[in-house]
Structure prediction request, 175 residues.
Amino acid sequence: MADGPDEADGVAGRVAATATALAAGIGATVEVMPCDPALADTAAFCEAYGVALEDSANTIVVVGKSDPPRHAACVVLATARLDVNGAVRRRLEVRKASFAGADETAALTGMAIGGVTPFALPAGLPLWIDAAVMARPSVVVGGGSRSAKLLLAPTVLAALPGAEVVDGLARAIEP
Prediction:
């Protein structure tokens, strides 16, 4: 996990380069949005930087309670709730699933919550993208550290190796 500002900036820079190269390969672009780390959590970020919640997507690590535990990363809109006890549990093929805690997320991904990005996940970790994310013209996702976000077309996420778009992975939160 990135400990200081210099290391965090290095991670964000590598993530931005990876995302930009992938986007260029499919004719899309990525905008790097610097972010005050204190404002990296979704609601605070959206309010401070004028981004609509429906245009923000979170990358959430989940864990299936099995031996050994099964993990996945899920990308869902900020206006939705990940269906951990339904869709995620079934996809992980476990009896019980939950959100991975901050320490478990950092140990698995090397990233802090608020900066987790689908562009720097460990090899072999499933990446599931809720279909509602794909309906947005663009989304903001974590940039690999709490100091950056990425604005991109959802097609860039779907182009990630091993990414899978999943109908019903999350449910819209009623206002």
About this structure: The domain at 5-172 is CATH 3.90.960.10 (YbaK protein). The two ends are 35 Å apart (CA to CA). Strands lie at 30-34, 57-64, 70-77, 80-82, 97-99, 127-130, 139-142, 148-152, 163-166, 170-172.
